[in-house]
Design goal:
This is Lysine-specific demethylase. This protein is an alpha+beta fold and about 190 residues long. It is about 40% helix and about 10% strand. The protein has two domains: about 130 residues, Cupin (Jelly Rolls); about 60 residues, no CATH class.
């Protein structure tokens, strides 16, 4: 978080942000950072374990049906980013599916790391600028490849339909580099 713009002289907005942080299931230390430390909160994140993705997807489809919304086959309630799980929906998700996430308030200067495939949502508390960087670690190539396969089933007009992770290219170049290093050191490897 590189910038948080807090309007001057709007105490009611500060109270609203505090309420949002509290309703967002933030812990007491985080609340104290805001109230006592006078740090600048930019965003409230809710991050869930990747293993809970299907349960969350099922829950969102169920809620959509209850509200009379359609669930087209080529759309995904997580990748569509059309839902925000407020306090009541998060509570219901925990009660009905046993899924509970982590609430993280990102203050000015904080970094938030989101594990591969972890469903997440963000609520900006003030005007802010965040810098994001995606990467594929060797430990998560399999999971990232699985995400790429999920994107293929989205409609062609969907913003996530394209392979943003470029997992196949990452694998190709990693193998190419490894083979190049092995070939360059072939003489030293063949000595007894």
């Amino acid at each position: 978080m590189v910038y948080v713009g807090i309007p001057k002289g709007q105490a009611d907005q500060e109270e609203e942000v505090l309420r949002t942080i509290q309703d967002g299931d933030s812990d007491e230390l985080t609340i104290k950072r805001f109230t006592e430390g006078r740090e600048k909160p930019g965003a409230l994140w809710h991050i869930y374990a990747a293993k809970d993705t299907e349960k969350i997807r099922e829950f969102l489809k169920k809620v959509a049906e209850e509200q009379g919304q359609e669930n087209p086959v080529d759309h995904d309630p997580i990748h569509d980013q059309s839902w925000y799980l407020d306090h009541s929906l998060r509570k219901r998700l925990h009660q009905e599916y046993g899924v509970q996430g982590w609430a993280i308030v990102q203050f000015l200067g904080d970094v938030v790391f989101i594990p591969a495939g972890a469903p997440h949502q963000v609520h900006n508390l003030y005007s802010c600028i965040k810098v994001a960087e995606d990467f594929v670690s060797p430990e998560h190539v399999k999971h990232c490849f699985w995400l790429t396969q999920e994107f293929r089933y989205l409609s062609h007009t969907h913003t996530n339909h394209e392979d943003k992770l470029q997992v196949k290219n990452v694998i190709y170049h990693a193998v190419k580099d490894a083979v190049g290093i092995l070939r360059a050191n072939e003489c030293s490897l063949s000595r007894p």
